[in-house]
Write a structure and sequence with these properties.
CATH class of the largest domain in chain A: Mainly Alpha
Strand content of chain A: under 5%
Number of strands of chain A: 0
Structural class of chain A: mainly alpha
Shape of chain B: elongated
Order of helices and strands of chain A: HHHHHHH
Distance between the termini of chain A: 61 Å
Number of strands of chain B: 14
Number of domains of chain A: 3
Structural class of chain B: alpha+beta
CATH topology of the largest domain in chain A: Cytochrome Bc1 Complex, Chain D, domain 2
Radius of gyration of chain A: 31 Å
Largest sheet of chain A: none
Distance between the termini of chain B: 28 Å
Helix content of chain B: 10-25%
Shape of chain A: elongated
Largest interface: A-B, 73 and 79 residues
Number of helices of chain A: 7
CATH superfamily of the largest domain in chain A: Cytochrome c-like domain
Oligomer: heterodimer
């Protein structure tokens, strides 16, 4: 292996690590190709700086590259050399075309699923005693007002759900009401989709503003019925 | 030690491999996409504003959107006839036509359909531009068609109960019923002189669109089942009129390739001079 062997192994190893190893480390995610490209570029710059530190290593590093480019004494590699000379401008052209082309995709919208509630809706506790009768009553209200979208099975798959984006929340999913406090649900039910802050994209949510139709007590009972029916418990502070 | 040729050969093979992998990885991102937007195809020779069966419609890609009963505001409805709408659109740089197609088992005088757009830069709630509590919303522009009147009404709303026909009626509509399917064409100029009330359609730009349908059937007592806010609705989706073809990308690519070629040429000349010196 000459002076070029190690850099090649290093580059390939780096690429393999970024592409295949790093995404599999728990808590990590696949890197975007632009970031991989940037890391490889940094690695390559590091190699070039290292290899050109002394005059000797510089010659060993650049010598073979220079010989290939000028085409002196490279024998059978001559065809490959011309191939590179044709391919390189084509690749540059292709990349340029790709980066100037106008996207056909609609703008991406990031939406915060559980945005912060207004201050007055944090830390409220359910004033309705948790009795079997109240839970039962809450489930009755749920069946009448909520189940058309959120589903009789609390799974977000009610008959009216299909056209709505964002989809009605699935309460059986551990990432919905199980990670929220009762006061948060009280806010979301009372104010509905139109009550969301801008990061929640309120213009898209079909959730009714129930405060204009239901008394607070009913809403607290619905919350109880929802947790019980979906077999979840509200998040607490301890 | 291996001969230099072999080493260089290795470099190039690996280098090309890595480059190719990066580029393939780069171009495949975001290629899978569901039907989230209506694309108005650019055509020449006038859009078929009166003819839902015109051959030109076959050049417009269909997009299917699911419908729900309107539940956001009272009066609600629990079940509606129309479950999906299929939407196509065409434009010729001046006029735009949107074809809405859906299954409806019966033709009734009160069958109706509507398109809804946000107006201007402000976001509007999909339910008639209902006021939002933490965000200042804008109005919606509604293009409404009803079978028995056989025409379109150009309207605005900013919340339920505020729906009002405009003074300037710019929209046309034509519905044709056959074999259990309604095909309704809405048409208008891409831009109008009333940017405060009318959606302005600029080719190349994405705007928001939503759909509503009323099945005009009556129940046993002779009352309309779907009327007013009791209708099938969709969420917001995107709409875009195709921009005229733009070939500048090819030009930039050619310039970049020429520059790369020149760079190679200069580099090799320099290297050769250096060697002989």
């Amino acid at each position: 292996m000459g002076a070029l062997g190690k850099p090649i192994i290093l580059m390939v190893g780096m690429y393999a690590f970024l592409k295949f190893v790093l995404p599999n480390i728990p808590g990590s995610a696949p890197l975007p190709s632009s970031l991989i490209f940037l890391y490889l570029l940094l690695t390559a710059s590091g190699i070039v700086i290292f290899e050109t530190l002394s005059g000797e290593s510089k010659d060993a590093f650049w010598g073979p590259i220079q010989r290939f480019l000028t085409g002196e004494n490279i024998g059978g590699l001559q065809a490959l050399r011309y191939g590179v000379f044709i391919l390189f401008p084509l690749l540059v052209g292709w990349q340029t075309y790709g980066s100037t082309a106008v996207s056909d995709l609609p703008p991406t919208e990031s939406r915060t699923i559980h945005p912060a509630p207004p201050g007055e809706y944090t830390g409220l506790s359910n004033p309705v005693p948790k009795t079997p009768e109240n839970i039962m009553q809450g489930k009755g209200f749920y069946a009448a007002y909520c189940s058309p979208c959120h589903g009789g099975n609390f799974d977000g798959k009610g008959p009216a759900a299909r056209g709505y984006i964002p989809a009605p929340a699935n309460f059986a999913d551990p990432t919905t009401i199980a990670m929220l406090q009762e006061s948060y649900l009280f806010w979301r039910i009372k104010k509905g989709g139109v009550g969301l802050p801008i990061e929640g994209a309120p213009w898209k949510s079909a959730m009714p503003r129930w405060e204009v139709e239901l008394p607070d007590e009913w809403i607290w009972k619905i919350i109880m019925g929802e947790y019980d029916g979906a077999h979840q418990s509200p998040r607490t502070w301890e | 030690m291996k001969p230099a040729n072999q080493i260089i050969g290795q470099i190039l093979r690996v280098g090309i491999g890595v480059l190719t992998a990066i580029m393939i990885g780069g171009v495949t991102i975001g290629s899978a996409q569901e039907s989230v937007s209506v694309r108005a195809t650019l055509m020449t020779g006038g859009v078929p504003v009166d003819d839902p069966s015109a051959a030109a419609w076959s050049s417009a890609p269909p997009a299917t959107f699911p419908m729900s009963p309107q539940v956001h505001w009272q009066n609600r409805i629990q079940e509606v006839t129309v479950k999906d709408v299929i939407v196509r659109a065409l434009h010729d740089g001046k006029q735009v036509a949107v074809l809405v197609e859906y299954a409806d088992p019966t033709q009734d005088p009160d069958d109706a359909a509507a398109l809804e757009f946000m107006v201007g830069d402000k976001k509007a709630h999909f339910a008639h531009g209902q006021p939002m509590l933490q965000v200042e919303g804008g109005p919606v522009n509604i293009w409404f068609w009803k079978n028995k009147t056989a025409k379109a009404v150009d309207m605005n709303a900013k919340g339920f109960g505020t729906l009002k026909a405009q003074e300037h009626q710019d929209v046309k509509a034509k519905g044709v019923y056959s074999n259990g399917t309604w095909k309704v064409v809405f048409s208008r100029d891409l831009s109008t002189g009333h940017a405060e009330e009318d959606v302005q359609i600029t080719p190349g730009q994405f705007i928001s669109i939503a759909f509503a349908v009323w099945d005009g059937r009556k129940d046993g007592a002779g009352d309309l089942v779907e009327k007013g806010s009791q209708k099938a609705v969709s969420s917001w989706w995107y709409f875009r009129a195709d921009a005229p073809p733009d070939y500048s990308g090819y030009m930039y690519a050619a310039i970049a390739a020429a520059l790369a070629l020149g760079f190679q040429f200069v580099l090799i000349r320099k290297l050769k001079k250096g060697q002989s010196a």
